[in-house]
Design a protein that fits this description.
It is built from 2 helices and 5 strands. By secondary structure, it is α/β, with parallel strands linked by helices. One of its GO terms (biological process) is proteolysis.
């Protein structure tokens, strides 16, 4: 199994809004899907499940450190029966 976490944070408390991180993360996620990644999760998660959109480019809130920690834990999570160990775990952060 190939699992990926793509993070594209456009909104920071002291930096204001950035323009490209979410777009970059969505482009990386699309390419990972094309090359056969089984599970892809984006952060911040989009409000809708629009095709080709893994990361919300205009979130109405900031990503919390707890959300980021939970997402990274998911990336490396192993099931109780050890059946879903990812052979590849990919983290993209922009």
């Amino acid at each position: 199994m190939k699992r990926a976490l793509v993070v594209g944070i456009n909104c920071y408390l002291k930096l204001g809004r950035l323009r490209t991180p979410a777009n970059d993360a969505n482009a990386v996620a699309q390419r990972l899907r094309e090359i056969g990644f089984d599970e892809i999760r984006g952060l911040p998660s989009p409000a809708t499940s629009e095709a080709g959109l893994w990361v919300d480019p205009n979130p109405d809130r900031q990503v919390s450190s707890r959300e980021l920690e939970n997402a990274i834990e998911w990336l490396f999570a192993i099931g109780e029966d050890k059946s879903n160990i990812p052979e590849t775990a990919f983290l993209f952060f922009a």
